[in-house]
Amino acid sequence: AAREAFYQRLAGKNPAQMKALWSRLAFSGSAQPPRVAAGPAELKKQLAADANAVGYLDKADVDASVKVLLALD
Q1: Buried b (16+ CB within 10 A) or exposed e, 39-48
Q2: Is the distance from CB of 7 to CB of 18 less than 8 angstroms?
Q3: Which residues, 6 or more positions from 66, have their beta carbon under 8 angstroms from its beta carbon?
């Protein structure tokens, strides 16, 4: 649900449309799709390790280790 809300709100696309977009970009060599974390703890670790990384978390998983850029209600 978080992924769908993220894609819809920021890109105006559903998850299937985003998957198709990333497939085309990867096939053409233009870009690689974003990494997928196994869970909230792993994502927070990845975000802490890379200041340029962006991810999405459920509000219940947000803590002081991450900076919120946009909250979807």
Answers
A1: ebeebbeebe
A2: yes
A3: 44, 47, 48, 57
Burial group, residue 24, by CB count within 10 angstroms (0-12, 13-18, 19+) = exposed
Q: What is the pLDDT of residue 59?
A: 87
**DSSP alpha helices (H): ranges in the chain?**
2-11, 15-28, 40-49
The pair of structure tokens assigned to 57 is 């978390």
Count helices and strands (H / E) in the chain.
Answer: 3, 0
- Cβ–Cβ < 8 Å for 2, 56: yes
Residues 14-33 pLDDT 10s: 989 999 999 999 999 999 88
For the chain, how big is the Rg over CA atoms in Å? 13
